[in-house]
Amino acid sequence: MPSRIPPLAITAYTATSALGRGRRAHVEALRDRRTGLRDNDFTAAPLACAIGRVDGLEAQPLPAEFAEHDSRNNRLAWLGLGADGFLDAARAAIDRHGASRVALLVGTSTASIGSTEQAHLALEDGRFAPAFASPALHTPHSLGLFLEHVLGTRGPCSTIATACSSSAKIFAQGERLIRLGIVDAAILAGVDTLCGSVLFGFNALELVAPEACRPFDVARRGISIGEAAGFALLERDGAGAPRLLGYGESSDAHHMSTPHPHGLGARLALADAFARAGVGAHEVDYVNLHGTATVKNDEVEAALLADSFPPTTRASSTKGWTGHTLGAAGILEAVITLLAIEHGFVPGTLNTDTRDPLCDARLALANEERAVRVALSNSFGFGGNNCTLAFGCAA
């Protein structure tokens, strides 16, 4: 088992999703039980499903100095950077520590593949049209290149693309870089936008529900796909800031798209998160579940919840609000977990009426007002890429 690690301060954090821009918009939507999901109006070809779409991205190109990076994904990143003063906080951290002492770690599963799709649909004499000719767009590291240009960081810059766990794992990578003395701070970014290949690809796998997703419901029929941008700033110290207490990562490699039937990888990630955080299951007030509303994911995670936590633990999936934001899901749900700690409430599980028999009363359906001191966020991705994050209230 890993050793306990010193907690790190999360000195700034924000999210932009179908619920709105910034922390306040998310808290208000969660408290009002107002979903961001709507009927699919994104794809030109018909696809009956619900999506979590951020409005206005098509009409807001990047500023001229960043034109070579212009894509839907980077536009969402730019929009999200400005929420809650995060861009100013990130630049202030770079000034404090020095550009070479700040890491930039990004999580995304699609990067700017939407622009590559558009480029292939608008070929000119078999070549990409000038509007799509920038090499910076057609790479998995598109998001990192763009944010490095915006922020001016000169420390380690990497992209993690492990499907749905991508932007949870950047918390773990940031902690290691700081603990090992390689950097003094880490800017974490998770961004994924809607695109045709993702929507139709998941539909081809028969994983997309025709209506808004219903996590852990006995009649659940699959996921609703969304888009989001989330950011966090990790530093050693920060008065009044919530803490990253620990994390656990695993890769069970059981199947390309199906979790291990006994959740072995998920259980290992949970155990390692407990060990690094130095907490036990009885100390956890809230668990933000991965809860995709697919049959197998929810089945495995429900068993993990029942086997690992006392009856007093509260848990929920928040994908009924935002949809499954893929590579951005980890950091979006980390932000929601931090909001639960900050505001003292447990968001329920939206759209779910009848719990699957594998679930029990630990799964909160309605919102609950209660103190949340220690909370977990699960992100379990394709290929068995699992990550559990442990957060705590300000020291």
Automatic annotation (TrEMBL):
GO terms for biological process: fatty acid biosynthetic process. The keyword DNA repair does not apply. Residues 1-393 form the Ketosynthase family 3 (KS3) domain. This is 3-oxoacyl-[acyl-carrier-protein] synthase-1. Pathway: Lipid metabolism. Belongs to the thiolase-like superfamily. Beta-ketoacyl-ACP synthases family. One of its GO terms (molecular function) is 3-oxoacyl-[acyl-carrier-protein] synthase activity. Pfam families: ketoacyl-synt, Ketoacyl-synt_C. It is an enzyme of class 2 (transferase). Its EC number is 2.3.1.41. GO terms for cellular component: cytosol. Keywords: Acyltransferase, Transferase.
